[in-house]
Task: structure prediction
Amino acid sequence: MQHGPAVRRRKLGAELRALRTSAGLTSGEAARLVGWHQSKVSRIETGASGVKPADVRLLLDAYRVGEANLRELLLVLAGSDETGGRHHWWHAYRGVLPPTYRDFISLESQASAMRTLETSVVPGLLQTPEYARAVTRAAVDGLDDERLDALVEVRLARQDILRAQPPLELSAVLDEAVLRREVGGPEVMARQLKRLLEAARLPQVRLQVLPFTAGAHVGITGPFVIFSFSRTSDLDVVVLDHLTSSLYLERKEDLQAYTEAFNTLQIHALSPEDSLDYLAGMGDGA
Result:
């Protein structure tokens, strides 16, 4: 269990090692191709040291990796501000966002799928502006209006990933407590429920409500997120969010445990169709 940067280094190194092997090169041969010492390639592949985006480009060229999406993802893992000529919008908020949040957004922006259990609040990708403002004000003590506005802007900008081409595939299980907790007052919650209904009808969103009648469940210990990445060998990661930091779980045993937990939660939750009816009923005052 590690913080984001260490996980990204290890995952990047593992992927580069797999690409080198696929190219039929030893670490020494790869080093000679790019003009390095063999030990540098080894340190990168084991995650023992960081690697500059420019060095990643050299290795990808040496391994004849031409797939644009894969190159972009690996450059993001290396901390690149620019990939494929596209500036990463969140860097404009460097003075506002803590590093762990920037790490989370960078992974979210490159993921092909996201599975999330939420037990307290609506997922950030589905929040209305008013709801996001109320949640942020409650979660971060002593915010001035300028910083609060910036954090809400970031929350809303993240939602563009659901409208990208291709869009992020979002599967969300929401504990009933998320829907019953009155954040921001009745009017704010009414608009938020309407937003959830709209989102649940999108083809890239699968939303399920876990009712109180389900009793104790495997997710009762807290929320989590699983990011999945297409066209990569082993980059999936679980994120556990805490008040002051985020922890990243990358071991296959952890990924399997959380994947099985999420599958179990989906079984015990209402179906997507019944969840839509449930949300509609709440919106009607049920």
Q: What stands out?
A: Confidence is low (pLDDT under 50) at residues 82-87. Residues 19 and 30 are 11 Å apart (CA to CA). DSSP finds twelve helices and eight strands in the chain.
